[in-house]
Amino acid sequence: MEGNQLFPVFIKLNELHTLVIGAGPVGLEKLMALLNNSNHARVTVLAETVIDELSVFAAGFPTVDVVQKSFEASDLEGINLVVAATNNNELNAEVKREANKRGLLVNVADKPELCDFYLGSVVQKGDLKIAISTNGKSPTIAKRLKEVLTDSLPNSLNITLKQMQILRNMLKGDFSSKVQRLNEVTEILMKPLDKEQQ
Ligand SMILES: C[C@@]1(CC(=O)O)C2=NC(=C\c3[nH]c(c(CCC(=O)O)c3CC(=O)O)Cc3[nH]c(c(CC(=O)O)c3CCC(=O)O)/C=C3\N/C(=C\2)[C@@H](CCC(=O)O)[C@]3(C)CC(=O)O)/[C@H]1CCC(=O)O
Ligand SMILES: NC(=O)c1ccc[n+]([C@@H]2O[C@H](COP(=O)([O-])OP(=O)(O)OC[C@H]3O[C@@H](n4cnc5c(N)ncnc54)[C@H](O)[C@@H]3O)[C@@H](O)[C@H]2O)c1
Predict the structure, then answer these.
(1) Distance from the alpha carbon of residue 141 to the mean position of ligand 2, in angstroms
(2) Domain named Siroheme synthase central: which ranges (predicted)?
């Protein structure tokens, strides 16, 4: 299919139960991606062997359990979201099949053809999050763009967000007059800064 057909969403991982299968370097990378965004996410990591770095990282999060065992389809019971990062392609395909049978969405790390969703590269500035995807073309460019945006977006944007929330809650009147006011006060953000302000 032409163009980028991915639909981005922001998932409340803190309210869901995620299963990560595989606890090597790639499993750790994906676990860190989950926890760096949702540090109360309930995550079960399941693997036959677990690298020390993953055990140490997981120990810092009371909502993360590490279970040392072979994967069985029954491990998917009670799970909402699945990330597979094993070194066994047949197993990765079985995880996808079994998970999809139960209506679950699966990410198989670094295997786009087996993914129902991709992980993105994420810019974080307080409440602001920008998720970047290159449609799987170049995760490295996604990472570089994250670095550029993290450097160039001012930290004060988070203060602006807080002030906007206060204003939003204070505004009286009907919906359309509130929307109009919120758009008026943010118009200035669309104007380039003059030399003295920069
Ligand atoms: C964004 C990020 C999120 C995250 O993982 O947290 C992410 N990959 C990151 C980094 C990264 N991954 C790889 C490299 C090495 C350079 C390279 O190989 O290109 C680097 C870069 C580096 O480390 O410099 C290896 C790699 N990745 C994939 C393949 C397979 C393929 O492309 O066919 C291979 C080859 C494996 C092999 O050769 O065997 C595939 C996927 N990687 C995705 C996400 C999804 C597409 C996202 C998009 O649409 O852009 C997708 C499709 C599925 C998924 O895994 O979700 C994270 C940036 C974190 C950050 O922001 O710091
Ligand atoms: N390490 C990298 O930098 C890298 C880069 C790109 C792609 N990959 C690919 O990503 C995959 C994972 O990489 P890795 O380095 O983390 O691999 P790894 O071999 O270090 O870890 C694989 C994990 O899968 C688990 N596993 C295997 N079979 C299992 C089963 N039946 N039940 C439960 N757990 C099982 C293992 O116990 C282990 O924890 C590999 O396919 C690799 O080719 C790795």
Answers:
(1) 24
(2) 126-149
What are 120's two structure tokens?
């993105």
Rounded Cα distance, 98 and 191, in Å = 52
Q: Is 118 in the pocket of ligand 1 (CB under 6 A)?
A: yes
Span from the CA of 6 to the centroid of ligand 2 (angstroms): 26
- Stated pTM of the model: 0.93
| 75, 93 Cβ separation under 8 angstroms | no
Split the chain (198 residues) into runs of 10 and give each run's mean pLDDT. Answer: 93 98 98 98 98 98 98 98 98 98 98 97 96 97 98 92 94 93 91 62
User: From CA 47, how far away is CA 22, in angstroms rounded?
Assistant: 5
Ligand whose nearest atom lies closest to the CA of 69: 2
Is 194 exposed, middle or buried, given 0-12, 13-18 or 19+ CB atoms closer than 10 A?
exposed
Beta-bridge partners for 21 = 46, 84
Alpha-carbon distance 82 to 85, whole Å?
Answer: 10
